[in-house]
User: What shape does this take?
Amino acid sequence: MVKSKSGLAIQLSKLRTFEKPKMELEQYPTESEIAAEILWFAGMNSDISGKVIVDLGCGTGVLGIGALLLGAEKVVFVDIDADALKICRENLILVDKELAEKAEFVNKDVKDFDFKADLVIQNPPFGTKQKHADVIFLETAMKTAPVIYSFHKLETRQFIDDYAARNGFKATHFWTFDWPLKMALAFHRKRIERIKVGCWRLERLKSDARSLQKSI
Ligand code: SAH
Assistant: This one.
């Protein structure tokens, strides 16, 4: 178990990332500092310890592994890419062999994933290569758990808020980050390019609050 946000960031910075990022799958890893920032908040907010968590589009596992380090009961790692899942599994064993017993690996397209959990954490494709990929991830996340932490391009803020409201969720917290696009897809980028990315904490509204919201 890690005892500080900086300790978590250090552990996560040791993980291997995509070897040959697949452009069509938008394999942009979450930077360890950003992952630690969100996960540490989630831990403090009682969203992680003892919870069953799904890391949708887990890639090499930074979010789910961080959750296990913060005391998650179980993490289900889901990705369409078997190569990424292999690195994810190796990363987890490297960090802590015993934690590997609390992990499950599912090689599936997110649209075919059907499971119930306490929490979803996800940094999905931003939808630039696969149109609406981010929406398919949100749809699955909302079916899977009542609380979601989800990263999206900042420019989609209005869309995400509206989508959440239409589906009985509301954003309780919101962060913005300068997101480094280093390493991933590096073949055509020598400089570190940054884009603005938001992270939403979404929570399912209780049914009475839902009907109230609809009537407004
Ligand atoms: N969550 C990781 C990886 C983010 S990159 C991190 O934060 O570092 C997005 C991930 O989504 C990639 O690993 C990619 O393989 C996966 N992915 C893309 N489309 C998918 C789909 N339809 N179903 C499941 N996983 C998908």
